[in-house]
């Protein structure tokens, strides 16, 4: 396997650093109540979860999303400031991120900032997930301008502690300069059949695992251990693995968004990672 042939010094998370979940966006809380409830369950090692109403914040506050956002925010408060911080089963410390679709650099700057302000004003998000983020060097200045403005917006609000978190949803390895434009990069998003043979870009070795996230669908239960080994070898600190989204026996694709629901082995993967708290 290619990832097993890398030099020993590329094994950057060999058990010493804890993996955690990044949830790229469950279905609407009204349609996926179990999924949203799991995010606030004590002991869930959640780093962050994305709120996406209609490709963004929607046109008005949604009461179901307001309730889900409040539960997750309260769980983070309990985790960070709870009365029993040494309890081995703690509430999750995950942030709620607003979904901003960059459309590979095609969306206007002012439109994105307007969506970001709505997320902060209505749902008090603790950061943003920049979906379909460009990957080329030519678009890097525009992305840097956007992330600098978003950081300033979060700093002005009372919803984001530690300056908030920005995650760039590339889905593949971008130009190395993007690593300095945000807090975390999604450098893989795709099927297990590609992930198990994938290779990490050499420049990522200059950064800690907290800077990278991997989203993989179609991971069989029997390959969970292998998938987590790949993530650790490749230096990813945040993951989301699911068995959904594979091919049916007649060759047709599965559901449109494999990350919209819980994997069928959710309890098992939570127990393998262990209880934790956000960084």
TrEMBL record:
Pfam families: Spherulin4. This is Phage tail protein. It comes from Streptomyces rhizosphaericola.
